[in-house]
Amino acid sequence: MRIGSFVWEYPPSARRIVSLEAMSMAKPLVVGAHNVVGFREQVVPSGPDKNGVHVNGGNSADIAWSIKEVLCDSERAKRWGENGRKRVLQYFTWRKAAEQTLRIYEMLQHLQEQQESGIVDLIETLKHE
């Protein structure tokens, strides 16, 4: 059985999309998630939906351990990859992004209309969201 894996180092602006691309191809993930918020919402590091592991990208021993975790058990790696594929289809499609963006615009439009009619202060409302 061939699982396939890759290790990469990209500039921070490109990292989130690369992990989503790997998830869409059902690849298990090892991500340097130290102080990186986006990976924490993409990569589930424990539980039944686990699709990879978070590591300290500045610690070579941590990176080596995590790659070994993926490579030493092909069935587990396959399961992680399948979980990642399910997750990307559930939460991270372009359709989902468009729907979420539309919801935000609709919320802002509604708040703007309320503000114009004197019902709510738009700035104060957004501060508390």
Would you kindly provide a written description of the structure presented here, covering whatever features stand out?
The protein is mainly alpha-helical. The chain folds into 2 domains: 12-92, no CATH class; 95-127. The protein has helices spanning 12-24, 37-42, 60-71, 74-91, 94-116, 122-127; strands at residues 29-32, 52-55. The chain has a two-stranded parallel sheet. The model has no long low-confidence stretch (mean pLDDT 83).
| Extended strand count | 2
Terminal Cα separation, in Å? 48 Å
Biggest β-sheet description: 2 strands, parallel
Approximate helicity band: 55-70%
Mean pLDDT: 83
Based on Cα principal axes, name the global outline.
elongated
Query: How many domains, as an integer?
Result: 2
Helices, by number, come to 6
Strand order within the widest beta sheet: 1-2
Unreliable spans: none
Strand content: 5-15%
Helix and strand element order = HEHEHHHH
- From the alpha carbons, calculate the radius of gyration and give it in angstroms: 19 Å
Features:
129 residues, mainly alpha, 2 domains, two-stranded parallel sheet, 6 helices, 2 strands, 60% helix
